[in-house]
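Title: Prediction job returns without error message
Component: structure pipeline
Severity: low
Priority: P3
Assignee: unassigned

Description:
Job completed but the reporter wants confirmation the result is attached to the right record. Sequence as submitted:
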Amino acid sequence: MAGDAIAFLIKITVKRPRPTDKLIPDAGYSFPSGHVFGTTILILLVIYLVIPYFKNQETQFLLCALAISWLAVLIFSRLYLRGHFASDTLGSVLLAASWWEVSQMLYLKYYDTVAGILNRLPLLQKKIRSKK
């Protein structure tokens, strides 16, 4: 959700107008593409957190190729419908990948701190004790 907020803040800061010859009317600004940003984040989530649970490498490769193909089709549709410029979609992919990396870095840096705070919460301690 924070990534979508960052994409929105960039969108209202840059205020790049959409292409004028749109096939389907669309409101708002063009850069970055929210559809491409959100889909890229979802695909990265699937690639890094879901696909590793599949043990077969062929299945992993097929799912990864399918996810990347889905993103390519989405980018093509945004360009075909003239809702975005090519730089809007490429910028969205790069922005989403950057946000993914920053999120991973923050997770790794603050995991122990947040886990320690959550373990001291009384509500969570009751649930932990009741499981024993």
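Comment from assignee: result matches the submitted record. The radius of gyration is 19 Å.
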